[in-house]
Amino acid sequence: MSRDGASTGSLGGLLVLDFTTLLPGPLATLMLARAGAEVIKIERPEGEPMRSDLPVFEILNRGKRSIAIDLKADGAKLAGLAARADVIIEQFRPGVMDRLGFGYEAVRAVNPSVIYVSLNGYGSEGPDTLRPGHDLTWQAESGLLSLNVDANGAPVLPAAMVGDIAAGSHAAFANIALALYRREKSGEGARIEVPMFNGLLAFLAEPLAHSAAGQSVHPGYSPATGSSPRYGIYRAGDGRYLALASPEEKFWKAFCQRTGLPLDAGRETIAARLLERGGQEWIDSFDGADLCCSLVLTVGEALATPRMQRLLEADPLPLPIARQLATGAGPLEAAPVLGEANGTLQSQV
After folding, report:
1. DSSP H helix total and E strand total for the chain
2. What is the CATH T-level fold of the domain 15-202+326-346, as seen in this structure?
3. What residue ranges do the domains of the chain occupy?
4. Is-above-0.85 flag for pTM?
5. Interatomic CA distance for residues 128 and 134, integer angstroms
6. Which residues contact 57 (CB under 8 A, 6 or more apart)?
7. pLDDT by residue (tens digit) across 118-166?
């Protein structure tokens, strides 16, 4: 979306009011902007908290506009925008938007076709409705965090915020796309809730299935949690690490052929063999083989690879949106200065 309001892409012409902060909502609305929607970020007068980490704010809020406003004192000034918005997305605890005058029922009364999205922790029903939470606590409470542990059996801090991103951002984007398609056919708006705790359950597909079948679910019970020597992380002779993922027989045979391991090699045998060479030496020896084993790269090393450089040429944060469905060929415009659209947009409300 450009500053002058011109837009191409699958969602060109759609207006999104974004009341979200931090990571889950802003990433969802970044995807909407990348698909061509006009996204107006509604911020508190001092700006949303992520502005304190400017590089992250910049990458998550490209292609958007910003209105800085005290919703408690001046929220009524946004009534006109709310009345014509295609999508409203918010990330407060249940009840907050109602108190601000922008709850779903209030908006639907003047905008019946609106798609209204609430990102929250546990949903608006049940005893946990108002409980605070973060990605880490949702992973802990879902059982997911217990399945990957260190040598002492302690859960490992996950590097990726799968609750925020997959169960939040991506789930919100997918549900908005479904609601827009339904509205195209029926003219009906939608009230959508995206509880991020609930969304994490998709990551427990195997444990849920196994548990329902009467199996004990615990660290090391499955290949993903360490039961198979063919699927794990091994140290090489130079202190680097190799990620081996060859559970399928054809990949495993190719790996054993290149390493000289017997097909019945266990974890200790594999570990001892891989210590005989440096990590990159092993990777070089696998060249041309049909197997899955990679050197564990630092972020800096990954960024220097030709593959990553090609991806980052087009966008500093590549998004899972097909190029032909996105807006334009180049990067989105820079993230907005706080309140840059106050004058031009509030004059329309």
Report:
1. 17, 9
2. Rossmann fold (3.40.50)
3. 15-202+326-346, 223-301
4. yes
5. 13
6. 48, 50, 51, 335
7. 999 999 999 999 999 999 999 999 999 999 999 899 999 999 999 999 9
Q: What is the pLDDT of residues 65-87, one digit of tens each?
A: 999 999 999 999 999 999 999 99
How far, rounded to the nearest angstrom, does the alpha carbon of residue 296 sit from its chain's CA centroid? Answer: 22
Tokens linked to 72: 């408690």
User: Looking at the predicted structure, is the pLDDT value of residue 329 above 80?
Assistant: no
CB–CB of 238/279 below 8 Å? yes
Burial class of residue 199 in the structure, from the number of CB atoms within 10 Å of its CB (0-12 exposed, 13-18 middle, 19+ buried): buried
203 residue type, one letter: F
Domain 223-301: give its CATH code.
3.30.1540.10
Residue 338 φ then ψ, to 5°: -55, 125
pLDDT digits (tens, 9 = 90+) for 278-315: 999 999 999 999 999 999 999 999 999 999 999 999 88
Predicted confidence at residue 265, as pLDDT, reads: 98
**Alpha helices (runs of H) in the chain, residue ranges in sequence order:** 24-34, 54-60, 71-74, 79-84, 96-100, 104-110, 135-142, 162-164, 171-186, 196-199, 205-212, 249-259, 267-274, 279-285, 299-303, 306-314, 342-346
**Parallel/antiparallel/unpaired status of strands 231-235 and 241-245:** antiparallel
**CB contact at 8 A, 28 and 119:** yes
Sequence-separated (6 or more) residues with CB below 8 Å from residue 206: 222, 224
**Cβ–Cβ under 8 Å, residues 24 and 3:** no
Token pair listed for 204: 């427990």
What angle (nearest 5°) sits at the alpha carbon of residue 34, between those of residues 29 and 35?
95
Q: Which residues are catalytic?
A: 218
For residues 112 and 131, the answer to whether their CB atoms sit within 8 Å is: no
Interval 212-258: pLDDT, tens: 999 999 999 999 999 999 999 999 999 999 999 999 999 999 999 99
Give the CA distances from residue 132 to residues 42, 52, 94, 120, in Å, rounded to whole numbers and listed in that order: 22, 21, 11, 9
CB 86 within 8 A of CB 16: yes
Please, are residues 150 and 156 in contact by the beta-carbon 8 Å criterion?
A: yes
Q: Structure tokens of 76? A: 């009524």
